[in-house]
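Protein Record: Sequence and Backbone Structure Tokens
======================================================

Structure line: whole-number tokens from a learned vocabulary of local backbone shapes, matched to residues.

Purpose: to set a sequence beside its fold so the mapping can be learned.

___
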Amino acid sequence: MSGLDLFAATAPGVSAVTATELLELGIEVGEVLPDGVAFRGDPGVVRLANLRLRTANRVVARMGAFRARTFAELERHAGALNWRAYVEEGGTAAFRVTARKCRLFHTGAIAERLARAAGVREAGAAADAAEDGAARDDAGGESQLFIVRGLRDEWQVSADSSGAHLHRRGYRLATAKAPLRETLAAAAVLASRWDRTSPLVDPFCGAGTICIEGALLAAGRSPGAGRDFRFMHWPGFEHELVTPDLPGPRGPRPVPTVSGYDRDAGAIAAAQANAVRAGVGDVVLFAQQSLSAFEPPAARGWIVTNPPYGVRVGDRDDLRNLYARFGAVARERCRGWVVAFFSADPALERATGLHVEQVLRTENGGLPVRLMVAEP
């Protein structure tokens, strides 16, 4: 199983951040695409990527690619792939199939033929609908997921190595309004170029995800520590390769001041509970506080936040004053700081009065958003 072709799938636009993460882990990067990063490695690299990547949604192993315009061609080429490296003969597998501009377009029939070629039992359509992104068999157990993509009769087959989506760190059981996925929160902190020693503040913290991800990053804690991954169930996988956590490149590190504020008491309660589950409850400060009451704790630091977007026209009108106040607080009290915030509306960005620069364009909850950075 040495020399696997691997791919770290990401949210749109996040792949450049993920590529930097891979390089920092000592993993050579291949092609960087809008939705992920290609790289190579052995099972140890598979483990490292799943445990350490903060911004990837999942890591898959590329099994092969071929051209097929008929079911006979599909089965013949699929039968030549090394399915036994990922699932035992007669085992259960799920097939997530997409087909665009292909002669073969019935995804259910394609999955059926692939299962036959692979010599496995198909887990069923319910596997693709699992909320956590893991494939489930008919009995509710987790099965091996294969991701199959067809475009103009060219087919690519990949084996999932992650299981549940990597954004599911296990700590965010309590949520607030419009929660931000852990992977996007980590991407915001990394793209802001936080130095990991200066204070980090989120004045619209909600469930506290940005602060928690920042604290985990500063402490050198692996985001995937303590969870189960699909690669751990591959046939012949050497389980001694799996450790509960991996030390950071410089070992455990002290965490700087990380604090989050929100006007909503329920959001603060949720954030505190999440921080405790993440193991950073003693180093992250959460408090109920309005934006106007914010006072920077040091001469230099980072604000990284996900303020309300105001998708509806009426909401945008109501939020213009909030964004104006946010910009005023940053200009008047945060000289020397870096301010990074997600935005879905250029008009609200202008309302801040800050000279902003886009550093990331992605999606949150299906909505196009940009991470804007300014230095007041």
Notes: The mean pLDDT is 90. Residues 313-333 form the longest helix (21 residues). Residues 309 and 344 are 6 Å apart (CA to CA).
